[in-house]
Amino acid sequence: MQSPNKININHYKTKTMAFKGQIVIDVERCKGCAVCVQHCPKNVIQLSKNVNGKGYNYLETVNDECIGCASCAVVCPDGCITVYKVKC
Amino acid sequence: MANLDIVKPENLVYQRTKVLTDATMHYCPGCGHGTTHRCVAEVIEELGIQDKTVGVAPVGCSVLAYNYFDVDFQEAAHGRAPALATAVKRLNPELSVFTYQGDGDLAAIGTAETIHAANRGENITMIFVNNGIYGMTGGQMAPTTLVGMRSATTPYGRCVERNGYPLRITELLATLPGTYYVTRQSVHTPAAVRKAKAAIKKAFEFQQQGKGLCFVEIVSNCNSGWKMTPVQANKWMEENMFPNYPIGDIKVDGKIAEGIDVNRLVLDHALEVVTK
Questions:
Q1: What is the pLDDT of residue B117?
Q2: B13 to A68: CB separation less than 8 angstroms, yes or no
Q3: What are the CA-CA distances from residue A21 to residues A36, B5, B16, B59, B234 (Å)?
Q4: Which domain, by its residues, includes B94?
Q5: Which of A22, A29, A62 should be substituted to probe chain B, the one whose Cβ sees the most B Cβ atoms within 10 Å?
Q6: What pTM, to 2 d.p., does this model score?
Q7: What residue of B is the nearest CA neighbor of A80?
Q8: How many beta-carbon contacts under 8 Å exist across A and B?
Q9: Per-residue confidence at B196, pLDDT binned at 50, 70, 90?
C-alpha cells in the first residue's frame, strides 16, 4: 500500500485516521441482507431506499469515513463488495 | 462520494475471488452458504490448486454448488457425497477432493456414508453446513434441529419424546480413529469468517499431506426456514445454536483437543430448550 501521488494529503490530515478506504459495491449482485451494515466500525454503509433490478434494497455508502478494514466484504455472503485502501 | 483516486488496482485490499464464477447465487439473502462458498474458493485460490481440485456437490440448498465454483465438480446422489469423494480420491490420489454438504444430506440420509468414510480414514476434506433445518424443502425438522425449535413439521417445537434428540455428528466423528482434524466454525461475523477460512485451509493442507479425513462443520443460519431477517437469524444463532453446537476445534492432529470431553458432548443431552 504505497501512498499514491494524486491524493490530496492535506484533506485527510484533519481527520485522525491512518488509512483511507473506498468500497465499490456490485449493486446488481447485492441482495440487501444487511449483514454487513452492523459490522462496519465507522457506519459507512446502509441499505438504500431504492431497489436494484431484482427488487432488493441494495447497499450504499452514506459517508466517506471508510478505513478499508474490509469487514463488510469478508462477511458478505455474495461477495459484492470490493475494497481499496491507501495510507494517508 | 466515490473517491476515484483510491479505486486503483494497486490499492486493492479485497475482491471477489476468481475461483467463484460470475453466476449470481440462488441462496436467500444473508445465507451462510454464500460466505462458506467464498471461504472455500479463497482457500483454493490461495493454495493454487484450482486445476487440481474436485468438489462433490450434495442434494439440498447447495445442490447447485457446481454452478458457482470454477473447479471440477461431481454431483452425488442424496447423502452419497463421501462415497463419491472416496472413489475420486482413490482413483486420482494427486487431486484435492472435498465434499460440500448440508445437515439434511450429511447427517440424515447420508449418515452411513459419512461415518464409514470417516471410519476408513479416507483422505478427503468434508465441509458440513449445519443450519438445524431442511432449508430447501421448506423448513422441516432435521436431525440437527434443536429441542424446542419450531419448524414446519414441529410447529410446537421439537419434542424429545416424539422427535428424539439433536444429532451432534461432528462430535461423533471426532471419536473415530480415522479422522485427523475435526472442527466447528461459523460465518456470521468477520472474525468468525476469518477463523473458518483458516480452518478450511488447514483441512485442505492436511489432505495434501495425506493425514486423513478432515471435517469442518460450519454452524450457519437459515433465515427463511427460521422465519427471521438475516440479522435476527444471526443473533438467534448466537444465542441458541452456539450453546448446543459449541464453536472451536474438537480434534487436532488426530487427538481430541485439550479441554474437550467428547463423550460429554455426545452423550450429554440435557440441552437448553429453545423457544421461538
A1: 94
A2: yes
A3: 16, 10, 17, 40, 27
A4: 23-266
A5: A22
A6: 0.89
A7: B16
A8: 109
A9: very high
Mean pLDDT, residues B85-96 taken together: 95
Closest to A78 (Cβ–Cβ): which among B12, B34, B187?
B34
Alpha helices in chain B (DSSP H): 32-47, 81-91, 103-104, 111-120, 160-163, 169-174, 190-208, 223-226, 230-236, 242-244, 262-267
Distance from CA of B119 to the nearest CA of A (A): 33
Q: Supply the range of the domain harboring residue A28.
A: 22-87
**What is the per-residue pLDDT across A16-58, written as a single tens digit (0 to 9) for each?**
558 889 999 999 999 999 999 999 999 999 999 999 999 999 9
Domain-embedded: residue A8: no
Q: How many domains does chain B have?
A: 1
* Amino acid code (one letter) for B232: Q
For testing contact with chain A, the best of B13, B188, B221 (most A CBs within 10 A): B13
Q: Mean pLDDT over residues B39-56, rounded?
A: 95
> Does any domain span residue B152?
yes
Residue B39 lies in a domain: yes
Which of B8, B16, B230 is the closest to A79 by Cβ? B16
Pairing of strands A19-25, A81-87: antiparallel
Please report whether residue B200 resides in a domain: yes
CATH number, residue A65: 3.30.70.20
Amino acid B214 reads: C
Assess if residue A78 is contained within a domain. Answer: yes
- Is A1 among the domain residues? no
B240 Cβ neighbours under 8 A, 6+ residues apart:
B146, B149, B272, B274, B276
What confidence tier does B5 reach under pLDDT thresholds 50, 70, 90? confident
Mean pLDDT computed over B240-244: 89
Domain count, chain A: 1
| Mean of per-residue pLDDT scores for chain A | 85
- Identify the top-confidence range among A60-64, B6-10, B124-128, B252-256: B124-128
Q: Which chain A residues are within 8 Å of B14, Cβ to Cβ? A: 70, 73-74, 81-83
